[in-house]
């Protein structure tokens, strides 16, 4: 039996991407994206809510995100949901749910589209935390 883990979001970058490298030399970028929704209550009152998503990109997609994305920009992200766990120096267990991006489109005045085939360094095992090169942040 097959499953499906796919997420699509459009939102604003909350901060510039942070680019790091694993001990094995793989690029990894992390950033936050805020999505907003509005609705009108039965009483006619307009409401707004926002949700923040942690996003991680690997390989050349990570480097492209660092190069082209800045705080406040609107962006389309496609990827999968992943929850990672790690233990800190004091032995406390931490968990983080994030979107592992495999596609990014910069929306607005300048459009940049990076599709899955455009980055050859993406390593599914590293991105999923199934290797020794996981990066707890």
Distance between the termini: 33 Å
Question: How many E strands?
Answer: 7
CATH fold node name: OB fold (Dihydrolipoamide Acetyltransferase, E2P)
Say which CATH homologous superfamily is assigned.
Answer: Nucleic acid-binding proteins
Which quaternary structure do these chains form?
Answer: single chain
Rounded radius of gyration (Å)? 16 Å
Low-confidence blocks of residues: 111-137
Helix content: 10-25%
Widest beta sheet: strand line-up: 1-3-4-6-5
**Inertia-based shape:** globular
Return the string of H and E elements. EEEEHEEEH
CATH architecture descriptor name: Beta Barrel
Count of helical stretches: 2
Strand content: over 45%
Brief sketch in words of this structure:
The chain is mainly beta and 137 residues long. Helix content is 10%, strand content 50%. It contains two helices and seven strands.
